[in-house]
Amino acid sequence: MLKRNVKILLIASIIAILVIPTTYLSTVASSSGSIKINTMGSSTPGYQVQAGGNVNLYLGGVTWTGQQFYLFMGADSSTQMGSGLVYTPLIDVYDISRTTATSTYYGDYGTWIVGAGWVNGSIPYNQAAGNYYIKAVDGSVSSSVAVSDTYITVIASTFNSTLNVSPPQGTGGTPITFTGSGWPGGSTVQIFYEDPSFGWKLLSATQANAQGYISYTCEAPDMKRSLTNYDSYEGYTSISFKAQSPSGLIYSGITYFNEYQRGLVTLGTATANGLYGNGTDLSSTVRLKTGDTITVSGKWFHANSPIYIRWDGKQVVGTVTHDQWAATVPIGQTATNANGYFTTTVTVPEANAGVHYLQVEDSQTWLVVKVYLSIGSLTISPVSGPGGATVQFIGSAYPASSNVDLYYYDSSFGTWKYWTSTTSTQTGTIQFSTEIPDLKSTAYSGEYSNYSTTISFRTDVNGASYAYADYTQFARGLTQVGSRVAYSLFGNGTNLASSVNVSPGDSLYIAGKYFHPGIIYIKFDGATSTGDSYVASQWTSSINVGSTTASQSGSFGIYVTVPSVDGGQHSVAVEDSQTSLVFGLKVTAPTPTPTTTPSPTTIPTTSPTTNPTPTPTPKPNLPTPSIDLTCKGSITDSGSRVQMNGQVTLNGNTVANALVSISYSIDNGGSWRSLTMVTTESDGTYSVDWRPDVSGYYLIRATCDTTSTMNSASKTVSLALTRDEEQHSVFTVNSNSTITQFAFDSTNGKLSFVASGPSPSTGYVEIYVPKSILGDISKLTATVDGHKVSFDYESQADAWLITFSYTHSSHTIVMAMGEDQQAPVGSGNNGQIILYVVIPVVVAVVVTLAAIGLLKRRK
To answer: Which of 517, 543, 772, 524 is nearest to 659 (CA)?
Structure first.
């Protein structure tokens, strides 16, 4: 019984030794014989080996009683195990006995090759320096173990373990290779990477070769990152890698792999300066139509991955969930290359107009951008030029005979603003001309600037967007000042004092480009030199030295005479109807020459001669043209708007290419402010779009200057504007009378004003009443001083044009927009119809009575 208990105790001790490979004390062993070091004969004492290095052990003379054994390092040479360290895994006795093949064993401390009586491999890399004996334990219960015939000398080693990654940057999923050195020969090396969300994670493990080198290739872990929601520079996420032994006692430093983030290069007509990131809103730049074939290209997606292009569906939705995307059918498919690049084309599916989402998906994640699907078409001609240029819009695929609103995108405020309206034809086409909004931009100071801004336009029908088009607006600049020619354009604030030097009386040439078409004024800052300051207050005493007209392309050239000003640096302003550009130059005042007082001399007396009376040059008897002017107000998102239209005729014929100056007065003609200058079209018509700051009373004057073929002519009208804030409408009155007390009573539906003028001349009014206020013309009553009057009316797209006349004095005029009126008030040309009917009837009655009288007289 006692012997059985001893056996159980010994077996338990052996199991403990195998399970816990640390320093311990053992009292049993099983193998016997001598272990040779680097030889099959007698070993040399003190063979030196570095910790972690290799040693060749010959165990051919060992007698085994078990099937497996392990190697043990101890400080004593006894055949008892003693204290020490188990440093190999269990090795089969069969493998060491084989002479036809070798076996390789791996453990925490390295690698061992076993066969033909030899065990060649590592000793522990963390073994302390000293003399050690090698012992073999085969697992059987015995009183002795095999031990080396002499000791080895271990030299302590400090491992300089390294880890490198190549390439150092790329996309997720791309092949990367880890290399390193200084690892224990044959040891296991674990490679980790740092996940920003979960910390350090094991990527893989590899084995160092006998010289301590590692080389391992795998895919870079994909962090599933995309750039943020705008056009941004390429960016990356740095992934940290490290390597270590399984025990963690040996480890490398940190190495990095820069993983670039996904983005789109091209989508339709839009190409990023950098890359479009996830969530980028391209709805204002990528305008698509059903059936369009568009290019989609991307960069830094998962390497060698399939790519699916998905459309959010037919309906316009605010967001798309993960499940909704999963249910969509891809509209295109391709694959990335080893660098994560791809390019493909897709066809836009049928869908409702509006903002849609387009998804680009690889094997790991996806990226989504917004695009716009339009229904109609819209083009601009020309597609570039200055602000204020007249362009033509042409479009198709609109609802027949419908009101089409034109909006433009104000990049300063990030909003769409109403600009104008037109009506589509019965075939759904539109074609109209209008001025481009002026962004009032000037080139930058210096001579190298010539930048532009893209203005996007959009057409809407009943609140639904139909089409988009873009116009490139160039910033104002000067091409030449004096003899100085700009490399590109002289911008606002350019100081030319060092290169442009003039004197009073000199002729100075100034040329510019991309100014607002129309009147251009050239102004000197004043008689006193202002230096290099460009402040608004200096222009209160400015000197206007000339004016000219900028063409539709915004170009002009003019010679001006330098005024009599002090010497020094002066500022010159080039001003169009919207803004001004200021530059500096130098004026050199002439030095006065002193004159000598002459000695008095005797003046001989001469007989007076008679000066001939000059004969005046006869002024040609030029004909005087006729010029018309009407104004109509409306409301836009940015305030009131007045559309001025007119025509110039001469002897019944239209006058083309005539210059018409438009000016206005806010003090009943006490002073006038220039608004713009336009050129008449081939049919003699002209049009001006004006945005007054406030509603109220204005005098508007259109003037056609004298030419070689005709005299000057002008037309002045009184313009009164008042708003109905509830309906967002504006009432407009044109008249040759003075208009005061102009107001609209929305509660009672009455528009009233006072019209006055010199008696006994004839006055007239043209009143634009919005149809949003008065839908049925039969409900309108017009009274002058309380007496009903008949009127003519004309139905326009958004308003009624009401006209009637009166004898001048001071009259109170009221337009009542109530229920149906009993008396016939206005029905087209009813006033004229009454005259056409009544007068012939009266004439017929008179003729009949006269005939009867003659017959009676003959009898």
So the answer is: 517
Q: Please tell me the distance from the alpha carbon of residue 522 to that of residue 470, in angstroms, as a whole number.
A: 32
Residue 151 CB burial class (10 angstroms; 0-12, 13-18, ≥19): buried
Interval 825-846 mean pLDDT: 42
3-state secondary structure of 30: coil
Q: Quick one: 626-832 is in which CATH superfamily? A: Immunoglobulins (2.60.40.10)
Please give the sequence-ordered ranges of beta strands (E in DSSP) within 725-761, or none if there are none.
729-735, 738-745, 750-756
Q: Nearest CA to 655 among 618, 680, 678?
A: 680
Supply φ then ψ for residue 587, to 5 degrees.
-115, 125
Q: What's the pLDDT tens digit per position in 637-690? A: 556 778 889 999 988 899 898 888 888 887 778 777 777 777 889 899 988 888
- Asked if 114 and 95 count as a contact pair (C-beta separation under 8 A), the reply is yes
CB contact at 8 A, 315 and 355: no
Exposed/middle/buried for 147, CB within 10 Å: 0-12, 13-18, 19+? buried
CATH code of 2-155, in short, is 2.60.40.10
CATH number corresponding to 263-373: 2.70.50.50
User: CB of 64 within 8 A of CB of 119?
Assistant: no
- Nearest alpha carbon to residue 356 among 302, 292, 408, 307: 292
- pLDDT reported for residue 246: 80
Tell me how far apart the alpha carbons of residues 622 and 138 are, in angstroms, rounded to a whole number.
133
Alpha-carbon span 391 to 689, nearest angstrom: 13
Q: Which helix (H) or strand (E) holds 193?
A: strand 188-195
Query: At 793, is the secondary structure helix, strand, or coil?
Result: strand
Q: CA-CA distance, 506 to 33, in Å (whole number)?
A: 120
The mean of the pLDDT values for the chain is: 82
Report how far residue 10's alpha carbon sits from residue 28's, in angstroms, rounded to the nearest whole number.
Answer: 7
The identity of residue 510, as a single letter, is I
Q: What is the DSSP letter of 281?
A: B
Q: What is the CATH number of domain 164-260?
A: 2.60.40.230
CA distances from 52 to 48, 102, 245, 625, 738 (A): 12, 22, 12, 110, 109
What element of type H or E holds 831?
Answer: helix 830-858
Instruction: Quote the CA–CA distance of 418 and 407 in Å, as a whole number.
Output: 4
Q: Per DSSP, what are the bridge partners of residue 170?
A: 259
Answer whether 164-260 and 377-474 agree in fold: yes
**CATH for 477-587, among 3.40.50.720, 3.30.565.10, 2.40.50.140, 2.60.40.1930?**
2.60.40.1930
Residue given tokens 């419908």 in the structure block: 402
850 three-state secondary structure: helix
Give the count of beta carbons closer than 10 Å to the beta carbon of residue 433.
12
- pLDDT, tens digit, 9 for 90 and up, residues 503-520: 999 999 999 999 999 989
Of 55, 77, 212, nearest in space to 123 by CA: 55
Residues ≥6 apart with Cβ < 8 Å to 787: none
Q: Does domain 377-474 have CATH number 3.40.630.10?
A: no
Q: From CA 279, how far away is CA 499, in angstroms rounded?
A: 51
Chain segment 756-781, per-residue pLDDT in tens:
988 888 989 999 888 888 888 888 99
Distance CA 679, CA 665 (A): 22
- Domain borders along the chain are 2-155, 164-260, 263-373, 377-474, 477-587, 626-832
The whole-angstrom separation of Cα 652 and Cα 650 is 5
725 has pLDDT over 50: yes
CA 489, 493, 497, 501 torsion-angle sign? positive
Q: How many CB atoms lie within 10 A of CB 526?
A: 18
Cis? peptide before 604, omega within 30° of 0: no
